[in-house]
Structures are given as C-alpha cells and as structure tokens.
Design brief:
By secondary structure, the chain is mainly alpha-helical. It is about 70% helix and about 5% strand. The protein has a two-stranded antiparallel sheet.
Length: about 300
C-alpha cells in the first residue's frame, strides 16, 4: 500500500471524525447533564442538510445557506424540545427511546413528503471548488480540508466555552452532579434547554457542512447516530474532550480499517475472498475498539467524576 493512499485515508478519517464530533458533542452533554437518551439527535443532522438544500435553492450561495441554516436548526431543535422532549425528562429510558424513535420515523417521512424520496445534493462554495496538492501526486479537495479546519475551530471554541465561562462551569457541574446543582438554585431545566438548543445547532451545522459531500436523503442521520453513541461510550458521557478524542479515534479506525484490513487479507487469501470478508471485518472495528475501551475503562476515556 502506498503512503499516498494512507495519507488520503488519514485525511478522510479526520473528516469523518470532525462530523462525528459535531453530532456527538451536543448528544453527550444532553445525556451527561440530564441522562436523557435522544435517539432523534441524528434527524437534526438530517434537518441541517435539508436546510442547506432548501436555502441554497433560495439564495444560490452556500455561505448564505450556512449562515441562515444555523439559527433555523437551533429553532427547530427548540421546537422539538418544547413539543416532545421536555415531556420525557422524568420518564424512564425505555419511554425516551420509544418516543424519540417515533420522532425519527415522523421526520424521515416528513422529509419524503416535502422533498421527495430521491437523493439531493448541494455544490461546494465556488471559492473552495479546487484541490490542494499536498504532496507530489496527491490532490485533495479544498472543501474537505475546510471542513476539517472548521470542525477543529468549533471544537476549540466549544472547549473554551465549557472550560472558561460560567455557563460552561454549570454544564460541567450538571454533568457531574445535577441534583446538587439544582439544590444550589440553578434552573437545571433552563440549563438543559441551552445545552439542547446548542447541540441541535451543532448537529445542524454538521449536516450543512456534509451536504456537499454526501447524499441528502431521508434517514441519512440514522447510521451516524449509532456511531455517535459509540463515540459517547468511548469518550465518556458528558465529556466534550472525550467526545473529541473518541470521534477522531473512531473516524480514523473506521476509515483506515476499511483499507488496511482488506489489503492485509489479500496477503493470506485470494483477492476475491479478501474483498468480500475485508469490509465485513472492517465494519466491526469501531465496536471492537469500544469493547476494548470499556474493558479497560468502563466509564469511558474521559468520563466526568461523579461526586458521591
């Protein structure tokens, strides 16, 4: 295997990791602060992608679509919170899973009714519609590089908010001991509303940024949601640092594994069998990684320490 191919896969793994982090960041805080299992978080990623399609059609500008989509994604998240999710906070996890799964089915069908079942797409912005020459013989799309940089900047900004602001202090305290925070007079529900809205906006941002790269279609967030939960389990519920590190690990393991495993099997078996078995084994690698982390650290790599 050439070093150029490995470098491309590393960049693709970083790109996937950044998208996973944007989805998992809000989800891990919601679960960490309130213990609320929101299976519908993936549809907020899907809604962001559809907002990109719709707003690009209105404005003809990807940047304008991005700027307009963020507050709309925040608003849609708050509407869902008001209409559905706030009625589930005091219910058991099974009720939360069933209700949020119903939201997934409803919104997926709603997107089919509004936009149709066919896959849609958005072109990247014109000023990023070129490729970088990273090394001799290797071209990499500028938009993918921009997505990686944007995701890393968002991660840095989110870390600063969580670690350097009063709201961040309350979020960290809520993730550690929500009952004590509530006893001290903090409105935990209002805090959760802030976290939930911001998480919805991050997922929407991921959807907008992913729209030029992936097909925009109903259910596009469902598979990523499963991987996002793997990220949360590996990183530790309630930890932004854990979500970031775990997202990059999962992205790199998944992307590199799909190439390395198949090529490795070709050394010991015929190419046809390797091409059939390799992808199946590679798809299990992130779950093997999760199992190893849980064996070593059952609460995740960077789980907040809960006060006793």
């Amino acid at each position: 295997m050439s070093s150029i191919l490995i470098l491309i896969q590393l960049l693709n793994g970083l790109q996937l990791g950044v998208i996973l982090f944007l989805i998992a960041a809000g989800l891990t805080l919601v679960f960490g602060v309130m213990g609320f299992i929101n299976l519908a978080h993936g549809v907020q990623y899907m809604l962001g992608a559809y907002l990109a399609v719709y707003l690009y059609g209105l404005t003809g500008s990807f940047l304008a679509a991005l700027v307009l989509a963020l507050p709309l994604a925040l608003l849609l998240g708050l509407v869902l919170e008001f209409l559905v999710f706030r009625h589930l906070y005091d219910r058991d996890h099974l009720s939360q899973v069933l209700a949020t799964f119903g939201v997934i089915l409803f919104l997926n069908e709603l997107m089919k009714v509004i936009f149709g079942p066919a896959s849609l797409s958005v072109p990247p912005p014109a000023f990023l519609d070129f490729s970088f020459t990273l090394v001799e013989g290797l071209l990499y799309p500028a938009y993918r590089v921009a997505l990686i940089v944007a995701g890393l900047l968002v991660a840095l900004g989110l870390w600063l908010v969580i670690t350097r602001t009063r709201v961040g202090m309350l979020i960290r305290a809520g993730a550690t001991n929500p009952d004590m925070v509530s006893a001290l007079g903090v409105n935990v529900r209002r805090l959760f509303l802030i976290v939930f809205g911001f998480g919805a906006m991050l997922a929407g941002f991921a959807g907008v940024m992913a729209a030029p790269l992936y097909s925009v279609e109903p259910g596009m967030g469902d598979n990523l949601l499963i991987v996002a939960f793997v990220v949360i389990i590996i990183g530790g519920a309630g930890s932004i640092r854990g979500a970031f590190v775990a997202a990059l690990l999962v992205g790199l393991v998944d992307t590199l594994g799909r190439t390395l495993v198949t090529d490795g099997l070709r050394l010991v078996m015929d190419p046809s069998s390797a091409n059939q078995i390799g992808p199946a084994i590679a798809s299990m690698l992130i779950y093997v990684l999760m199992a190893l982390v849980l064996f070593w650290r059952p609460e995740g790599l960077f789980a907040p320490k809960v006060a006793r």
